Every structure is written in structure tokens, then in C-alpha cells.
Amino acid sequence: MHVVIIGNSAAGLSALESFRKENKDAKVTLISKEGGIAYSRVLLPYYLRGKADHDNFFIRDKKYYEDMDVDYIEDTVECVDDKKKVISLEKGDKISYDKLLIATGSRAVSPPIPGLDAEGVYNMWTLKDAENLEKYFIKGKRVMVLGSGFVSLQAAWAARFKGLEVTIVELVSRIMPNVLDDKGAELLSDSIRELGADLRVNTMTEKIEKLEDGSFRVYTKDNEPFEVDFIVVGTGVRANIALVDGTDIKTDRGILVDEFMETSVKDIFSAGDVAQGPTTFGDKHIIHALWPTAIEMGKVAGNNLAGKNFPYEGSLNMNTTQMFELTVSSMGRFNEGEGDRVEVLDGSVFGGKGYIKLVFENDKVIGATAVGSTNIVPLLGKLRPLIRKKTVIDVPVEKLGAYLHLQIAKSNPRNIMKSIKSS
Amino acid sequence: MFIVTMDPTKCVGCRNCEYACSYNRAGTCSSEESNIQVNFYPDENACIPMTCMHCEEAYCLSVCPAGAISRNEETGAVIINENLCVGCKMCMLACPYGNIHFDSAKQVSRKCNLCDTDEPNCVKHCIAGALNFEEVEEYDGNRKDCDGIIMRALKEGGDK
């Protein structure tokens, strides 16, 4: 059997490792577009902030590929022929497969604003982006961050942390809609401004003009133009699905997969940012484009590539980071729907500081968000299994801490919580 | 492998384990600096020590985006390399037991590493016999799923 994995990041490697646990003999080929040793995109802002060295980017080493017994190819897959079971590479080679995993990830996309294609305008998505940006991250430089999602704001914080003059421009009325509720966004916005970044919401960027000295003049609607030395564009990502054009593989925004990470074509699987799969809430096809989801999907795909009957319990969105001196975390459905019950708590209930919101649907906890001190994060961690398994929580929220610990003790994990189960 | 076992029915809440861990790790006797935490709930009449269980399929290890969490092949402990950790806190969000903490001075995650010895400090200083360093049986298939174990216990019910 010949297994081909396209992709050398979270999903591809997780699949490779899970597959190799089950099958040591099959020939495996791994194809990487960017080439080199696998690195972690998540570390980009930490690198720019000075928290991680260049070496820290690499999350595997050369020996890993030998240990995993893979043929490693640095090339781009142009197209898949699902009838003949062959893929074509940019450099001209064709490779036949018995089973294929498409873990091609996503790419950063920019809005159609005139002038955004100039030198000095970067995304924050690839190792190359980080290397390009690093030389600008010097105290006193002026940067515009376009967009206010998770990645953009991490870039903005890294810049502010290093003493740059930071202007964040967001088209809509609030920041980080995929990670925070309105109140959480307000708290973070206050902190961003207190720490000296110029956050402009409801602001439309009309055009960017490159000046003779290499800097930029930014024109926004209804405001005076302003000048910056460089620009970071963080306005979202799009799945890399062009390689399946012309096949019977069903796509939407990403490649549609079932709970086994199999596409609509037998023996072709997909995982990670490119895959649009089931969630823990029963949605059939959602792209979460998150590191933990990619790891989980990869594990499922790897097991099924090895012929196991291994279903996914569904993706559960989870996010956390520290920025602008606040720890920001969320999980599941943290924006309440109609009829949902909301409990807002002060972090001091759990020995921390800040704002915590829990969302309940029919007394089942379905999501949570927290903005404040670090030590409120473990609460969300302990809620994760309960969100996944749709557990009814019928204790007052002030008792949640005790309840969670008692349940953990009673569950006797690893047989190490000695007597409480029998007592 | 050997891990720290916890007996909530014997724990008296003296917090010696926390002080021993904190002193060994950070040179101070402070509950906040400890990797083992004694959770005292007077209304529930419960005193529950909690420290890392070094899960066989450790979710923190698999989701760490910095590759900073690994298993010590010798002791079996799940350990954090603080030189690789960037402080993103994904592991804290991943642990279903709340057993990963944050070192605010170094801005990295921290957790129990079993003191890299054959007698962890928390066990050595437990006055009640609640903590022991014992060999645990390796998992069979159904014990691997941490979330599932908690949920089965929840369904079995018991006092809330």
C-alpha cells in the first residue's frame, strides 16, 4: 500500500504519527509546499515579540522524518486525478497512491484595497512572513495592522510590546468576533487603548499610497490620512482547495469530510484547515481552522488511513492567548442563542481576576469565554469534557469549582484518586 | 510507571505538599507557586489534592503548538521544556483536570515533573498519608479516554 500525505504541518504530521502507530510497513510519501522541517505558525507572533527564537519555530527535526520512514518531497501538488489515483506535482512528477490525505491548510487573504500589493505590506502566516517582518519590529517604527482577528491582534501586541507605534484598523464595529463576545471584546479594546495602541473600529480603508521614502500613506473613509512604515494584513484565511478542481471531491469553502475524515471520494481523506468537517454540536461541515482541531482531525485521518474504523467526536473550537496584558480564552458556543441561559461570573469565584461567561442550553454547558488573569483558564479546560459530552449541570455556578473537582476525584482517572469513589 | 496517587479521604488540608513543591521549584513557600494544589471545599466537606496524572494519551502534549511538551522516557512523566514554551496557554485550556499552571515570572506554563526523582517532594512532606508515589497499572483501552472516564463517573451520579 502507498499512502500519500499532502501537507507538513499539524494535521499532516498528526495523521502520519497515528498511521505509523498502526502500520509500520506501508510506503508513505509526505509532500510539503513550503519545504524544510515542519514549523508552527502559531509561534509567529511570539517570535516577533521576542518570546521565541528562530530555532523554536521548528517542531520536528530531520531525524523525525527518518524515524517515521517517509519519502519526503518538497514540491507543490497541482492537481489530483481521483479516477486514476495519481497526483501531479509542479516540477513535473506524477505520483500514484492507494490512499491520499489532503492536508494543504489555508492561506492568508487580503481585501481588495488599492495599494496592498506593495513591498512593505505583509501577512502574518508563513515563516517567510515572520522573517520579512522581523526587520521592521524596531522601537519607534509605525505599523498599521489591518483587521482585528486573533492573528492581527497578536501581531499588534507583538509590535506594541516592542515599542512600535501601532494603529489597528477594523472595518466593523468590534474586534475578535470569532473568539470573544461583545463584553469580552470591549474589555480587550479598553486594554489595547490603555496600552497605547490606536484602535479604530468602523473604519474603512480606501487606499494605500506608497511614498518615495518607502513608507505608506493610508487613506480611510471620513478621516484624515495617516502615515506608517509598514503594514500587516490579517483579514482572514482561505482553504487551499484548488488542487481538487475537476475531481468528484465535494467542496464548499473547504473540502467536505465525514466523521472519518473521508471525502466524497473513497480512499481520499482530508484534515486540518482545508477540511470542512463535523463539530461536537452536530454541524456537518464547519471549518474551524484551529491548531487543536487540526491535530485531532489528523489523528482520526491517520487511523482511518490505516484501516481502523475511527470516528471523530467532532471539532470543538478553543482559543487562548495572552495579549495587551490580558489572558483571552474561549471555547464552544460563547455567544448565546435565543433561549440560552447565561451566567456571568467574576473571576474571583475561581481564584482569579476578570470576566467569565458561561452559556447553557437546557442546563447543558455549551460554551464559555474568559478575559482576565491566567488562572481562570483551567476552569475552561475542566469544562471542555462537559461541553463535549453535553452534560447537564444542575449545581449553582458558584459551586462549579467544587463540583468539577469532586467529579474528577470520583472518576478516579488513572486509578489514582484513591478512596473517594468507594466512600 | 510511578506517579503521585492522591487520597482525598486522607487529606487534611495542611498544604505541606504545596509548600514543599513551591520551595523545591521556586525557593519560596507559596501556594501560588506550587504545581500540586489542595482544593478545600468546606461546604462539601471535601479536601481534594490535585496534581498531574501524566496521562498516557496526554492531550496537552499532543496540542502544544510549540512542541514544548514531551514525555520523559525514563520516568514516564509528561514534562514542559520551558525554553521551548512560548506561554500561549493552550495546554491549560487542554487539560481536563486543571493541572497545568502558569509561571508569571518566566511567562511559561508549568506542571508536575515528578521532581525527576524516586521520591517527589509533595509525597515526602505529606503528613497524612494522602499522597503516595506508587506504580500504576498501564491502561487498558477504555482507560485511555480521559474525558470519557470523567463522564462515566458523572453518569454514575453521587453527591453533588
Uncertain spans of chain B: 140-144
For the largest sheet of chain B, list the strands in their spatial order. 1-8
Mean pLDDT of chain A: 94
Strand content of chain A: 25-35%
Order of helices and strands of chain B: EHEEHEEHEEHEH
| CATH architecture annotation name of the largest domain in chain A | 3-Layer(bba) Sandwich
The structural class of chain A is: alpha/beta
Structural class of chain B: alpha+beta
Q: What features would you highlight for this structure?
A:
heterodimer, A: 423 residues, alpha/beta, FAD/NAD(P)-binding domain, Enolase-like, domain 1, 5-stranded parallel sheet, 9 helices, 25 strands, globular, B: 160 residues, alpha+beta, Alpha-Beta Plaits, two-stranded antiparallel ribbon, two-stranded antiparallel sheet, 8 strands
How would you describe what is shown here?
With 423 residues, chain A is α/β, with parallel strands linked by helices. Chain A has three domains: 2-42 and 57-107 and 237-305, FAD/NAD(P)-binding domain, CATH 3.50.50.60; 121-233, FAD/NAD(P)-binding domain, CATH 3.50.50.60; 325-415, Enolase-like, domain 1, CATH 3.30.390.30. Helix content of chain A is 23%, strand content 27%. Chain A has helices at 10-22, 44-48, 62-67, 127-134, 150-161, 182-194, 291-305, 377-388, 400-411, and strands spanning 2-6, 27-32, 70-74, 77-81, 86-89, 94-96, 99-102, 106-108, 121-123, 142-146, 165-169, 198-200, 205-210, 216-220, 226-228, 230-233, 237-239, 255-256, 268-270, 275-276, 318-323, 326-332, 341-346, 354-361, 364-372. In chain A, the strands form seven sheets. A five-stranded parallel sheet of chain A has the order 3-2-1-7-19. In chain A, strand 1, helix 1 (10-22) and strand 2 (27-32) form a beta-alpha-beta unit. By secondary structure, chain B is an alpha+beta fold. Chain B has one domain (2-156): Alpha-Beta Plaits (2-Layer Sandwich). Helix content of chain B is 22%, strand content 20%. Chain B contains five helices and eight strands, in the order βαββαββαββαβα. Chain B has helices spanning 16-26, 59-63, 90-94, 121-124, 146-156; strands spanning 2-6, 37-41, 46-50, 69-71, 78-80, 101-103, 108-110, 131-135. Chain B has a two-stranded antiparallel ribbon with strand order 1-8. A two-stranded antiparallel sheet of chain B has the order 2-3. In chain B, strands 4-5 form a two-stranded antiparallel sheet. Chain B is globular, with a radius of gyration of 16 Å. Mean pLDDT of chain B is 87; it is low at 140-144. Chains A and B meet through helix 7, strand 21, strand 22, helix 8 and helix 9 of A and strand 1, strand 3, helix 3 and helix 5 of B.
